[in-house]
Specification:
By secondary structure, this protein is of the alpha+beta class. The chain folds into three domains: 1-62; 69-124 and 261-341, no CATH class; 125-237, no CATH class. Helices cover 27% and strands 37% of the residues. The chain has helices at 2-61, 125-136, 201-205, 207-214, 232-235, 314-319, and strands spanning 69-81, 84-97, 112-123, 144-152, 155-162, 168-178, 184-193, 196-197, 221-224, 227-230, 241-242, 245-251, 254-259, 276-280, 284-286, 289-291, 295-300, 307-310, 322-325, 331-335. The strands form three sheets. Strands 1, 2, 3, 11, 12, 13, 14, 17, 18, 19 and 20 form an eleven-stranded mixed beta sheet that branches. Residues 4-9 have low confidence and may be disordered.
Length: 354
């Protein structure tokens, strides 16, 4: 009898312990669930932030694909506009896609920039004045107008009118040098307004012009004391160039600039001399065609003078010439000079032959 009672008591005790254990487990589970529910918004936010940080880190560490197309040019009259051009004696660099573009598009001058490794480029005074009149100071409320540029005895002479000062004439003459960051500096040695000598540029231009330039409302133009500073990377129309000027000099009636240091590695498909524009590597698009592993050279049909190339009318130049395609899909284009497409000469006279 005593054994039965003890056994019964033991069973009840075990049952009681089991029930208590189940209650404790249930209470812990409910408490944990409530706690998780209370903390879930914060935890979710923290998780999202950590995931975003990890994704950003992964993106930043992921190497960006180089989509640039290597280029080499020789003896080219490169037109940015019908009345604005530079004389590219030699250039090695790359066409680099910009913005949302994943390749240079020849039909869109804003799709790429011309990165310069090394180059020798000449600029005629009338081209520089056209840049200032037609591009830099072309805005209706621009303080400058009627700018003309000459070279006299190895110095640069600039004349113009101050629109916001009653259209009074001004002129400055000075020496060209290069700033430490590769811009052009015109040191004004003689400055006149209304044909009367003044102390400095701001005495002639006025406080309004000083503030206008300092506030960056005239891209590519700045002043330092009596010096006028021009940045070719900003003042030239698209496709914009990218590269610092290393040296500048006046040669006869032309401004000669040098970019980069020492000779750059030539393209494997570039000719040793002549008038040409060579392109190599990656993708580039022209017209309805997209070229993979680009291997294209634009030659001058008439090698007696520089290749006169105008990007906005390149298709007309191509149509006036002919093209050869090799078995290896190498493209060799022989194009007509832009100026020779029309019977009447364009406003921009072509550079003399070397």
């Amino acid at each position: 009898m005593k054994a039965k009672l003890a056994k019964s008591f033991s069973l009840r005790q075990n049952l009681f312990c089991s029930v208590i254990g189940m209650i404790l487990v249930l209470a812990y589970t409910v408490t944990a669930a409530i706690g998780a529910a209370q903390q879930s918004p914060q935890s979710k936010t923290e998780r999202q932030e950590k995931q975003a940080e990890a994704k950003q880190k992964e993106t930043s560490e992921k190497p960006t694909k180089d989509a640039s197309v290597r280029t080499q040019m020789g003896n080219v009259n490169f037109r940015f506009a019908d009345n604005i051009s530079v004389q590219i004696k030699s250039l090695t660099g790359a066409l680099v896609p910009v913005g949302e573009h994943d390749m240079p598009v020849m039909d869109d001058k804003n799709s790429f920039k011309i990165h310069i490794d090394t180059a020798d480029i000449q600029i005629y005074p009338n081209d520089l004045e056209n840049v200032l009149n037609s591009y830099v100071f072309a805005r209706p409320k621009s303080p400058f107008g009627s700018i003309s540029i000459f070279i006299e005895k190895g110095q640069l002479k600039i004349k113009g009118r101050l629109r916001d000062k009653g259209n009074i004439p001004f002129e400055t003459i000075g020496t060209l040098t290069v700033t430490s960051d590769g811009r052009l500096r015109l040191h004004g040695e003689k400055i006149k307004a209304l044909h009367v000598p003044v102390k400095g540029l701001m005495d002639a231009f006025g406080i309004e012009m000083d503030e206008l330039i300092k506030n960056g409302k005239v891209p590519g133009v700045s002043t330092e004391g009596n010096d006028l500073i021009l940045d070719l990377q900003q003042i030239l129309p698209p496709p914009h160039i990218e590269g610092a000027v290393k040296a500048i000099r006046v040669e006869g009636n032309v401004i000669a600039t040098s970019f980069g240091k020492g000779p750059a590695k030539s393209l494997t498909n570039a000719p040793a001399n002549g008038n040409f524009m060579a392109y190599e590597g990656n993708q580039m698009k022209f017209g309805k065609l997209t070229m993979d592993h680009a291997d294209m050279i634009l030659f001058d049909i008439d090698p007696a003078d520089p290749l006169d190339f105008f990007l906005e009318h390149y298709s007309e130049q191509l149509a006036a010439g002919y093209t050869k395609v090799s078995a290896g899909s190498q493209l060799r284009v022989y194009m007509k000079d832009y100026e020779k497409l029309h019977r009447q000469a364009s406003p921009k006279s072509k550079a003399p032959a070397n």
